[in-house]
Amino acid sequence: MRLSRYFLPVLKQNPAEAQIASHRLMLRAGMLRQEAAGIYAWLPLGYRVLRKIEQIVREEMDRAGAIEVLMPTLQLADLWRESGRYDDYGAEMLRITDRHERELLYGPTNEEMITEIFRAYVKSYKELPKNLYHIQWKFRDEQRPRFGVMRGREFLMKDAYSFDVDDERGQQSYNRMFVAYLRTFQRMGLQAAPMRAETGPIGGDLSHEFIVLAQTGESAVFLDRRMLDLPVPGEDVDYEGDLSGIVADWTRLYAATEDVHDPARYERETAEADRLTARGIEVGQTFYFGDKYSRPMKANVSGPDGVERPVQMGSYGVGVSRLAGAIIEASHDEAGIIWPDAVAPFGVGIVSLRPGDAAVDAACERAYAALTATGKEPLLDDTDERPGGKFATMDLIGLPWQLIIGPRGLADGVVELKRRRTGERRTLPLDEALAAISA
Ligand SMILES: Nc1ncnc2c1ncn2[C@@H]1O[C@H](COP(=O)(O)OP(=O)(O)OP(=O)(O)O)[C@@H](O)[C@H]1O
Ligand SMILES: [Mg+2]
Predict the structure, then answer these.
(1) Please, what is the average pLDDT of the chain?
(2) 346-438: which CATH number, 3.30.360.10, 3.90.25.10, 3.40.920.10, 3.40.50.800?
(3) N or C: the chain end with fewer CB closer than 10 Å?
(4) Residue 364, Cβ neighbours under 10 Å: how many?
(5) 282: Cβ below 6 Å to ligand 1?
(6) 326 within ligand 1 shell (Cβ under 6 A)
(7) Dihedrals phi, psi of 352, to nearest 5 degrees
(8) Mean pLDDT over residues 424-437, rounded?
(9) How many angstroms is it from 395 CA to the middle of ligand 1?
(10) Could you give the CA distance from residue 165 to residue 15 in angstroms, rounded to a whole number?
């Protein structure tokens, strides 16, 4: 992409309404535009990041055997009456009436709808297990939308739903999602710790919140810091095999959010030197709730014994749009965002120090073509802005590499290569710089 033709409305000033770094930086880097409280337009740079996050989530869901669908944002109120949640959900639900006076709602989650789809087609244990997921916008009329995309009203969520014939297999499906979550967040450059979570009215005791540690997190968390050193399963993890050992390793050490924190137990189980009190951002939650929806909604399957029973379900959410903010909270400095390679909107920023200079233009074009060919997705700053402004913008938008090309360097046969994360700068011939970026 050439910056002269792109749409990147960066802000020089800090927006007054932004209280935390990620919100401030997303607005300043031209990623986001607030359209109403908690409702945002994703501008081109932001949308590229959102799509990268979404794609990692999708790949890890697929790897774990989940199957992608797409359910609508609007749902019938009657569906939610079947589970009893239409009245329970309260003011967070956005209720809509169509021209025929039919009651609809903008989905805050999809347990009812997926259960309705499942029961229409699946009748036998032979078709199980199944796990269906979608990545779709949700609406929750949050009392206090704030911190930009971290707590929006309209937000993008990945939600998966597992279906099994019995509890034991339901637990295995839960374990697959648990492991997929460890992998998903690691691929985005995040350290996310699974923590025991409140099960609330849903019942059962199997739920984990995946929490990224950050000073600006909304909840206090208490954990055994040794959890942060546990190895995350690799891509070759066998989702058909027994994952209970991995889940046990990750759930053995104490880790809890303030809602469920048990100080006595914490002190008993965790040596003082290992206790870590911090703040955290919830980026995902896994839940096993058995027949909570299948029983009232009569989603039954016949077992090997021919007897019909409610299918056993779990649900698994990831805050896709919240993750864009969480990644920035975990990775930024004074100058701006520092994108992990896997979610960076562009891989490299090429800074032309003198557009119009024949040698500089030629070198920039050669770099642009080479980096495009190797899939590095370069953003070429070919605008007339002063070098100082260009450097500030590059640091602000946080691309992993900056390749700086100017007439003086070229006269000596060199360009400058900067790694955003470390600030390390090297002066070297263009071909060597291109090789270093692709290494
Ligand atoms: N208002 C929101 N804005 C952005 N992301 C959200 C919002 N609410 C939930 N999410 C994301 O969706 C995921 C799954 O939704 P879930 O129903 O578990 O949310 P939740 O527990 O109500 O979230 P929270 O406790 O933060 O309100 C959450 O882990 C979070 O990452
Ligand atoms: Mg949650």
Answers:
(1) 96
(2) 3.40.50.800
(3) C
(4) 26
(5) yes
(6) no
(7) -85, 120
(8) 98
(9) 30
(10) 52
Q: What distance in Å separates the CA atoms of residue 165 and residue 129, rounded to the nearest whole number?
A: 7
State the pTM of this model.
0.97
Atom in ligand 1 nearest the alpha carbon of residue 210: 29
| 315 pLDDT tier (thresholds 50, 70, 90) | very high
In degrees to the nearest 10, what's the CA dihedral of 158, 159, 164, 170?
A: 80
pLDDT of residue 204: 55
Q: Per-residue pLDDT for 197 more than 90?
A: no
Model confidence at 179, pLDDT cuts 50, 70, 90, reads very high
* Residue 209 CA to ligand 2 centre (angstroms): 6
Sort strands 255-257 and 219-224 into parallel, antiparallel or unpaired: antiparallel
CATH for the 9-337 domain, from 2.160.10.10, 3.30.930.10, 3.30.565.10, 3.30.1050.10: 3.30.930.10
Please give the distance, rounded to the nearest whole angstrom, from the Cα atom of residue 347 to the centre of ligand 1.
29
Q: Where in the chain is the domain with CATH 3.40.50.800?
A: 346-438
pLDDT at position 93 is: 96
Of the pLDDT bands very low, low, confident and very high (cuts 50, 70, 90), residue 196 is confident
Query: Which atom in ligand 1 lies closest to the alpha carbon of residue 283?
Result: 31
Q: How far is the CA of 217 from the centre of ligand 2 (A)?
A: 14
Protein residue whose Cα sits closest to atom 27 of ligand 1:
151
DSSP state of 311: P
For residue 22 and ligand 1, the question of a CB distance below 6 A is answered with no
Task: Indicate which residue's Cα is closest to atom 9 of ligand 1.
Answer: 319
The answer for residues whose C-beta is within 8 angstroms of residue 2's C-beta and 6 or more apart is 380, 382
Is the beta carbon of 285 within 6 A of some atom in ligand 1? yes
User: 240 burial class (0-12, 13-18, 19+ CB within 10 angstroms)?
Assistant: exposed
Tens of pLDDT, residue by residue over 280-292, are 999 999 999 999 9
217 Cβ below 6 A of ligand 1:
no
Residue 325 token pair? 């903010």
Predicted confidence at residue 439, as pLDDT, reads 87
Assess whether the C-beta atom of 138 lies below 6 angstroms from ligand 1.
Answer: no
- Residue whose CA is at the smallest distance from ligand 1 atom 10: 319
How close is the Cα of 200 to the center of ligand 2, in Å? Answer: 11
Q: What is the DSSP string of 218-263?
A: SEEEEEEGGGGGSPPP-TT--TTS--HHHHHHHHHS-EEETTT--H
Task: Find the mean pLDDT for residues 63-80.
Answer: 98
Where, residue-wise, is CATH 3.30.930.10 in the chain?
Answer: 9-337
Residue 205's pLDDT band (cuts 50, 70, 90): low
